[in-house]
Each structure stands twice: as C-alpha cells, then as structure tokens.
C-alpha cells in the first residue's frame, strides 16, 4: 500500500500533518475519520517526489500590481459593509488573469461554506504569502480586518515601489549592454567574413589579433546556432544552480562580498525585512511569530539565518536588539541601535516603519549611484572594443598599401 502524506483538521479546527498507509484516498479519509480528523489534502510519496523534481516556472503567475489592486478593492468593499462572498464575486469578475480568477472563485466558494478567509487564502500559497495569510488571520481574530487590508495594501505598494525604482535605475545600463552585444554579433557574423576575403586577396602577413578576430568571425558564421544555444544553455544552467541550496548560498555569499553590490543587497534586504516585521507587529502578530514568518519570506540566506537565530534567542528571553547585535556587520549601520530605541520607548513598530522607509530610499539611491558609475565603464569598454576592431582592420590595410608603394 502506498504511503500518503496528508493534511487533516480535527473537529475543533486544529491542523495536523502526517504519513499513513492506505489503499487509496477513500480508505485514507475513512481512517482519519475514525481518528476524529477530516482529510484536507493528501499526496502519495511518488507524486510528492515528482512534484519536488519538477521544474517550476521562474516567473510568478500573479503580478504585484494585480495583488495591490485586489487588496485595495477588497479593503474598500469591506469598509462599506459588503459581505466577503459578494466582494470576492466582484473581484473574480473584474480580474483578467485566469489563474487569479480561478483562485478568487475558489476562495469565494470556501467562504460561502463557512470557512475563514485566512484558511481559504492559505490554500493558494503561490499567490498569498504566509505574511499575508497570518495578518488576515490576526484581523479576523481581533475584528480589525479593515485596518489589516490598509496595512497589507501599504506593504505591497512599498514593496512594488522599491522593486520598480531598482529596475528603472538599471534600464539604461541594460540597454547599453544589449546594444553592445547586438553590434558585436553583427560585426562578427556580417562584417568580418567580408574582410576575410579582402585580406586574403591582399596576400600580406596579418597581426595575431586580426587573425584571432577573423577566426572567431569564420567560426561563428559556420556555427551560428551557438549564438542562440550557448546563451540559453548558460542561462538555464545558472537558473538550475541558483535553485539548489548550495547554489543559492554561493550567490548570496558573492553578493554580500562584492564591493559595489554589497551595500545595495544589505539595504534592500534590510528594508524588505524591516517592512515585513513592522506590518506584522502593527497587525498584532506576536514578535516571535513575526520573526518566524519574516525568516521564510526574506530572500538572502544570511538574513534568513540571522532572523532564525534571533527568534531562538527571543524565545529564551532576550530582546530583539540584543539578539541582532552579533549580526551588526550584516545589517546597515543604525538598524540595531534604532531597534533598541524602539524597545526602550515602546514604539518598536513605528521605529521599524521609519527604518523601512529610510533604507528603501537608501537602496534606491545606492542603485542609482551604481547605475551612474556603470555608464562610463560601459562606454570605455565599448570604446576599447571599437578601437581593437578598427586597429585589426586598419593596420593590415596600411601594411598592404605600404608594400604596394615600395
């Protein structure tokens, strides 16, 4: 009989996970029922392994803009007294994203059957993060859903603004790099083959750098498919590497030690982490639970380890500021000190919010400075490439004309 990994709930609403032998799902459900549990979800060991080995799409199905619009509209409808079932019915009719529409319809049906909003949302972890679900759960328990929707809307908006500003700052350097690549491909595949015929007819000794340039042009003209296959293969290999734990660790280590990139990584990760903590604490989530959630959603491995370690220390009675002190080299200057001030004044949430605003702007400023620095470097590289190419062509032509005159 196959092993089933199951998620079940007791009649009191408590969740339980485990593994059980059963002939099929019906027998599994009956066995759990005899134990006073209701089967929620199950998967065999074989299907779980297949799901683990399958390659997920690298792009999210739901954009951040769609989430922001959804939570804003939901907050407005809820504040006017519209029932949640009707609100989700309207949201599903409004959205154009098929995947989101299906999810919203499913959530509406679950709420209609008497399920809590947070439980219905938790069934779509690829759309609604653990931070999102836990804040909604606190709002349901405290009767402050209206405020929670506003906090979530602010959280997602700030996250979107930070990402947008970082992307916008890197647009110009990216365009320059793309133009350099396209021009290089055109020169190597179109211009150089014609020059090969010309130089052959001159019957002169070519400099070594001209020979290398002509060889590369001839090789790529015959093996043109490499210009398509090689970049795609390298990108796929890189993506597969960063999907592994060791690969992610290597990338995070490099980013934190790279001279120009390290300040940006520290400030952007700190801003995201502090913003998440601020939103969770403001919503009424206990500090330990807030740290646990934040550790799961922060991107960088080292920041995750720092927060998980801080959570363990706080469970033993330490303050957040003292728990973070061993990681002062990881966080930008002033973070630990300001957290300590917040704890002493009893305004941790407000201090964290101000810190998040500050470091979000600092991350954007650092990106803009890097972008300004990259531009002249790229222009110099482009100039050197043009100079080498021009020298490789002009010198043989000059040598041939000199031999003719003699």
UniProtKB/TrEMBL annotation:
UniProt keyword terms in alphabetical order: Cell inner membrane, Cell membrane, Membrane, Transmembrane, Transmembrane helix
Record's subcellular location: Cell inner membrane
Keyword Transcription regulation: no
Entry GO CC: plasma membrane
Membrane topology: Multi-pass membrane protein
Family of this protein: Belongs to the GSP F family.
Name of the molecule in the record: Type II secretion system protein GspF domain-containing protein
